[in-house]
Amino acid sequence: MGLRLRRKSVGMLVRVLVAVFLCLAPSVSALPELEVSISHANGVPGQQHVSVDVYMTNHVDSVAAFLLWIQMDRPGIAVFQPTVDTVGTLCAGWEILEVQSLGGQYTDLKVIAITNGIGGTVDKAIPPQDGLAPLFRLLLDVESEPDPFAGPTVSLAIPLMLPQLFEFVRPDGQQIGYSTVMVIDTSYFQCVSWSGDSCLDYEQVAAWEPYDSVAIEESPHVIIDTALVGTQGGSLTVVEPVCGDIDGSLDGSVDVSDLTRMISYLMITFEPLSVPALGDVDSSLDGLVDIADLTALIAHLMIDFRELVCEL
Ligand SMILES: [Ca+2]
Ligand SMILES: [Ca+2]
Prior knowledge:
Elements: E1 3-7, H1 10-22, E2 34-38, E3 40-43, E4 50-58, E5 65-72, E6 78-85, E7 96-100, E8 108-114, E9 136-142, E10 153-157, E11 166-169, E12 178-195, E13 198-205, E14 213-224, E15 229-232, E16 234-238, H2 256-268, H3 291-303
Parallel strand pairs: 2-15, 3-16
Antiparallel strand pairs: 1-14, 2-4, 4-9, 5-8, 5-10, 5-11, 6-9, 7-8, 10-16, 12-13, 12-14
Helix pairs in contact: 2-3
């Protein structure tokens, strides 16, 4: 919209228009069209690569790109890794994936993901789905000595205040859950050089200063419609390490799920343990997780109930 200069009588009309704009309420919808949530995870001091799932439910539109900003509520407990894990997630195979910390300390993380690069065909967009699989996974490193005064839990929030930090886009490029309103900016001018009824030169003044003209500039302004978009944050809790608690839950108990995990690690999937030191339970303190540790774990759970000994 163009810039228009009008004489003083327009000033009241502008104020009325602005007042009407401010009273506009977001559109009302029964269910959000798009919801994003973060799960909860436990970690032990010094643990790296703690995985925290981020989920998205898109009830209506396919998603071909997104920008998401996630913020910790306090420092001193953990930091984000400068990457995210997309293996087996909804945006696996997307061509563009960028992360950065706006604060520079990686207690916040901005994630930008686009299914196809510029000029490419959008062929991996996420169709409407119920969020059963993660959108992607955050990776966090727990401080070796978490700040004892910060408490054991750090919240991971998705602020919705800033449209430029929360954006989900359809394959046609349209943003999901946004509303566009017209913002009217008003500037005030005082003529400093008259030639008859014509002003040769204006000087911009503050609204409370004398003025004889106003400039009205209308521009589209995008807002996040919280009736269409919902978010729910997650958290990471630092727990005391328990010898033998290797099933990934860090639930503080040693049971058959931990035994299953060790058998899987040693004989089936060979997927590394998230905290290997918790699996070195055979009292040898050899730094290895092997058949001796499996034997000790079986004995602890089923035979002589011996104590497990780790170097934590
Ligand atoms: Ca366990
Ligand atoms: Ca061992």
